[in-house]
# Entry
Amino acid sequence: MNLTQLTVFREVMETGSISQTARKLNRTQPAISLALKNLEKSLGLTLFERKGRRLVPVPEAHYLLAETTGILDRLSTISNTMEGLIKGHSGSLNIATMPGPSAFLFPRFISQSVGENPEIRITLSTRSSPQIMELAGTQNIDFGFADFEYSVGREPQYSAELIRADCFCAVDRESPLASCTSLTISDLDGVPMGGLHATHPFQKKIRREFQDACADYNPTVTCQYFLPLIPFVSSGQCCSIVDPLTVATEHEMNLSNGKVAFVPFKEPLRYEYALLEPDHRPPSQLALKIKAGWKAEVLKMLEGVKANPRAKNFAEAEGKQS
# Structure
């Protein structure tokens, strides 16, 4: 007994005809007759009696039909499920992203990508970048999106695709700095500044930039991530050097009601994002699809704010870093 024989049997039960079954299954009549004969032989039972040109099932055939229908319907369900998994139309995702994009940009992308598909289940966590790297390294997420930090010491257990883009200086539109076409670090000498916590790698980079320019860095507002700094900038309390996705978020959400201008730097300050994928957890087709879509979305948004984005893999970036 095999699936071809059961498929033929079910169609003959429904049509009562070898010829109609052959047409429906796009097979020859001899092939249908042979499949039915072999099924009867394997069962040791005649399933049909001939009444003229029609085949009349014996009582036992009705029991076999119920069992056959259950088997074939289950196989059809499995086939559809696997097709959905292969095409990325179903499955589950566990994703972690840093606080800034997780506030709006990333959930919007995920919701638009998934739509109303009930076959996709999403777990989206907001974590700090070091936590996301740890989750990727311990194989506990499908992928993550984070600020990138070069690991020191142990070999990372994840792969990384990096996106580098230009930072901007967020200033109150009433400030004289807002009228500048570009800024230098020296232009911010002694200016009240909003920034991230002192231990954040980007904040350390900013302080080095000020030191190299012999400029005074004057921190007046400190936040965990960039978006909460925007209200302080719009009120004129400080300026802030922000990553380009914050600029994209402000363009989309208009948190400042148009009161903040984003000015590029004459000598670009580059920000580095990372798409992190565990090394020892093979990605699903759904994860590959969403990850590639998010990368394309990020590059598109960064192009939209003229942040000059460039994508690299970790090996290329590490070689350049060293």
